Amino acid sequence: MVTKIGSSMLSDVVDALCEEESYQAVYHMPEHDRPMPSLEALSELVERLRAVIFPGYFGDSEIRPETMRYHVGGSLDIAYRILVEQVMRGHCFFCNTDDRTCTDCETAAKRIAAEFMQTLPEMRRLLATDVQAAYVGDPASKSPGETIFCYPSITALTHHRIAHELYKLEVDLIPRIIGEMAHSKTGIDIHPGAQIGDHFFIDHGTGTVIGETCIIGSNVRLYQGVTLGAKSFPQDDSGKLIKGIARHPIVEDNTIVYSGATILGRVTIGAGSVIGGNVWVTRDVEPGARLLQSK
After folding, report:
1. 163 has pLDDT over 70
2. The whole model's pTM is what?
3. For residue 44, which of 59, 74, 87, 210 sits 20 to 30 Å off, Cα-Cα?
């Protein structure tokens, strides 16, 4: 029970928190009265897509080949409807124009959601190669299934490959939220814009950062604490950061980057290179090079 003194205190706190100058910097009211994106709905979307991509591992654990079609169809139907609504909310979060109507946005959201759904077979193929890379690349792994259940790399890449397809479709905000969900769960920070090839594996993963404009080839392996980041942030004449320019590394095929290595700027790490632990790289590396700490 709140005492009289406590009630007065709470009333004062409520008054203070409802002062416009108090919440102005942390409150957002989208235009057109559409709610903001829902973290709960996006979590359900990802879980339903994981259940489709890895049938039996997530969602219903008793899927059989003869019931696969019903399982996949039911999950995708719900996922599609969630995605349409969240794409509209993401767009509305930034929308401040009356040039388009909400009907236009709904039509666009349905088109985007449909195009996204068509990427799922290729997404599953890529993730299957990631699973294989994790199994082959880690002597502690006893089966590919163990990596699907347990490895943060697979969790992070599942989120990333979903988020990246939405990013390519120019969906607002939603890809970043999905990426940050994986970041919170795994400690692996991959921007949705990063382009990542097949057979990709991040061993352990915690503390790994992959920036927006990174391009990573096939069969690349990173270890925990690797940073593929930007070296500097150019500014325009008014002092504002110039956004959208290529500023992160290109890591070519069959490269290994060991734990704690930091690679900054739009440099190219040539195919077949090995970057040792805790090495700092700000220049191009020739294909096949071994860049290790000096003793």
Report:
1. yes
2. 0.92
3. 210
